[in-house]
Amino acid sequence: MQEHYWDKASGYEIKVSKGFTELKPGAYTASAVDPVLEFPQRPADKSNMAKYLFGGFKRCLYAVKKFQADGERNLSVILEPQSFKSFKPARGQFQIYYKSGANHPEYQPDFVVETDSFA
């Protein structure tokens, strides 16, 4: 039954508790011997993308970052030339919660991107 369940929002409640929040530092582990890969470069072994550290960004707010899947890396390749700024937020960077039954889990965006338009 769960796979057929869906919930339609009846309204939204927005609470702004404070304004500007500084970027949290990215937390990750990296091998001391493996090099930082240029992000457009697809690694030979994509089965464990989280082990690679990528760099070479010009518009990302972090110098290096990790991806959970190759699709995230591909999206980063697409977004880099089309954005003013972008970043993959650290866990807890935003306090965005949603209602799921009786729970209120935190929403964790994969990317945040600033462009010159909404289109």
What is the gist of this entry?
The chain is mostly loops.
List keywords for this structure.
globular; 4 strands; 119 residues; little secondary structure
How are the elements arranged and paired?
Layout: E1 37-38, E2 54-55, H1 70-79, E3 85-87, E4 112-114
Parallel strand pairs: 1-2
Antiparallel strand pairs: 3-4
Describe the 3D structure.
The chain is built from one helix and four strands; from the N terminus they run ββαββ. With about 120 residues, it is mostly loops. The longest helix has 10 residues.
Largest sheet, in brief, is:
2 strands, parallel
Q: What spatial order of strands do you see in the largest sheet? A: 1-2
What is the number of helices? 1
Task: Identify the quaternary structure here.
Answer: single chain
Order of helices and strands: EEHEE
Average pLDDT metric: 85
Alpha-carbon distance between the two ends: 37 Å
Radius of gyration (CA) equals 17 Å
